[in-house]
Amino acid sequence: MTRRSCAIYVVGIICAHLLIVGIGLVVAQVFRTLMHNRLKKEIVLVEGSRVFESWKKPPPPVYMEFFFFNVTNAKEFENGAKPKVTQVGPYTYREYRYKDNVSMVENGTKVSSVGDPTEDSITTVNIPAWAVMNKLKGSFFKAPMVSLWMSSLGSGFFTTRTVEELLWGYEDPLLARIATTSPDVEKVFGLMYKKNGSNNGEFVYHTGEQNYMDYGRVETWKGQSQLTFWTSDQSNSINGSDGSAFHPLLQKNERIYIFTPDLCRSIYMEFEKDVEVKGIPAYRFTPPRSVLASKEENEANTGFCVSPKECLGTGLLKVSPCRKGAPVVASFPHFYLAENKYVDAIEGMSPERIHHQTFLDLNPTTGVIVRANKRAQINILIEKISGFPKTRTLNETVFPVMFLNESVVIDDASAARVQKLLLIVTLVSNFPLIIVALGAIMLAVFLVLLVRARRQQTAGEEDTSYTPVKDKDKDDPQNGTYIGLTPKVDQ
């Protein structure tokens, strides 16, 4: 066997082994499984893990934008006219979200505000007054007394306050008067009062060590595994994470759950589309209409009705059970995804998906949040209240007060780390394909060598001539021993 033949056989053997091994690994997904198992073990909430410190102290900056609805015809509304509002904002603050507490620091971190929150005034619903009136609804003794107090203090259905007062608190005269007889009543009111440097209660999370699907999932909140605000076990369930962590290896067909104390419930999000943020591929998840659908549209939401008479339509959630009975209604900004009647009831509403949608952009491999916008609107339910004669002229209205946009985009340093990790995952997971590619190259080389060897063999056969041996040549004793040369004769 010649060296060339040996080379061909060696190339063929190597080619066969590479293809068999590579295809086998691809079919069995061995390296992909190994990489995924590694991710499941690395992405856990334990000291020293890759994600623990960034989970405890998230590096990307979080911004809180506040938009207010300034009422321009308060007196006309009190006489039965359709309310008119204009949107004012944003007033933007930098938020520091540490797991031991949550702080929104104003000094040196306020950005992109349209004006000065200490100077800009907003006319809006007098939330303390409506909270008190709802609390005393039907009380034939206390309601008339508080009604007189409101008149003497000049505490009406609407109030004009600075943005800073509305957000961080002011002493309300009606609450101050009530506090003289009820010490448990807080004198100061603010939409974000006591939330600066505070927390939402103690959370207990799953680490994800036993099951990667439980990574970041809330086990208990304030020591409870079930809520007590609503009328069904399903509605009182605490499902999902707190919105800051999601398990790796996300699938497009799964529904992700988030427990949010601001809404006093868990909500869910579903896949919408593929996106890319700073070169990182991501799945966009967003709450569908069914999350805040009416009980007629989604029977599972029946448990969120405070009572059969206090069950609002699609797009709204009355959260008074966890707001000390105040008539607070949550929705998406400008009543996005809500019934048209709520939009049409207020002049100045214009819901748009691009501006008012809540969404999460998650990298499916790691579960890392690469971009997010949490948007929610605070409304007050205004209606006729027994014991308060001045409310008789009012039409029942879900009145918008303010909406916020909590946004975050992954920072460059974190994005670089995620990209590096994704590159490693891709290379390791696709290593069998590299083997198959090498096998394919070796197969091409093997075929080329075979073709060349065949051609050379054929050429050799065509250049060789054979002469029959005569009988006398066989008998010639010198045959095979001597070669006779005959001089060439010129023609």
UniProtKB/TrEMBL annotation:
Localization annotation: Membrane
GO cellular component, one term: lysosome
Gene Ontology biological process: protein targeting to lysosome; receptor-mediated endocytosis
Source organism, top-level taxon: Eukaryota
InterPro entries: CD36_fam (IPR002159), LimpII (IPR005429)
GO molecular function, one term: scavenger receptor activity
Keyword Glycoprotein attached: yes
Annotated region described as Disordered, given as residue ranges: 458-491
Pfam families, A to Z: CD36
Chain ranges passing through the membrane: 7-31, 421-451
Keywords: Glycoprotein, Membrane, Transmembrane, Transmembrane helix
Family: Belongs to the CD36 family.
Protein name as it appears in the record: Scavenger receptor class B, member 2c
Species per Swiss-Prot/TrEMBL record: Sphaeramia orbicularis (orbiculate cardinalfish)
